Amino acid sequence: MDSISYLEASARTASTQFHTDKVDADLLASALKQAIDTGNRLDVIKKSLFYGKDLDKNHPWQALKNHHNGTIDLNQIEPDVVHAAIGLYTEATELLESVLSTIEGQDFDAVNTFEECGDAEWYLAMLYRALDKTPAEARAANIAKLKARYPEKFATDAAINRDLAQERAILEAHNES
Ligand SMILES: [Mg+2]
User: Fold this and answer.
1) Which among 123, 134, 93 is positioned nearest to 6, based on CA atoms?
2) 3-class secondary structure for 64-103?
3) Which one, 78, 85, 105, 109, has the greatest CB density within 10 A?
4) Cα(106) to centroid of ligand 1, in Å?
């Protein structure tokens, strides 16, 4: 599925609701700040893990480390999958920073926000290479899954009560093809 077709197909299942009566700005802002803090922590780790930058052994984040007594192992996973997962979070963090600064009163920066689209695409490309898949395959699987979830268009009930087994079966069928 090409990019333009995907943009059109994805619009069919997008929510057009915005319930500011259910979620106030303070609740959202506090969650954004926490997520941004985690994203900044992951960005420091990413620069050490994938660029070789030395970590500050005395940084306050070091105290947040949990000890797993050797039960977790970085060599269990393909490095590009780790890099892409962390990278997508750090790019999402930049989007969250844009949202937070805008709701705090600064002008929305469309140029910077568009930059994050490209940055996220870069990490997605890394993930596709690691999985030996293409964006077209991912889009086709995604639209098939959403077609099962929303036969006509976005619906609140279907968004909240998902048939995860059915969606998994569709994704597995697409993964094999
Ligand atoms: Mg970026």
Assistant:
1) 134
2) HCCCCCCCCCHHHCCHHHHHHHHHHHHHHHHHHHHHHHHH
3) 85
4) 19
pLDDT in tens, 82-136: 999 999 999 999 999 999 999 999 999 999 999 999 999 999 999 999 999 999 9
Supply the pTM of this predicted model: 0.86
Predicted local distance difference test score (pLDDT) of residue 113 = 94
Separation of CA 120 and ligand 1 centre (Å): 7
| Residue whose pair of structure tokens reads 């279907």 in the numeric block | 158
- Between the CA of 56 and the centroid of ligand 1 the distance, in Å, is 23
How much distance in Å is there from the Cα of 132 to the middle of ligand 1? 24
Residue with tokens 């998902």: 162
Nearest to 89 by CA among 167, 35, 148, 146: 35
Residue 162: what residue type? Answer: R
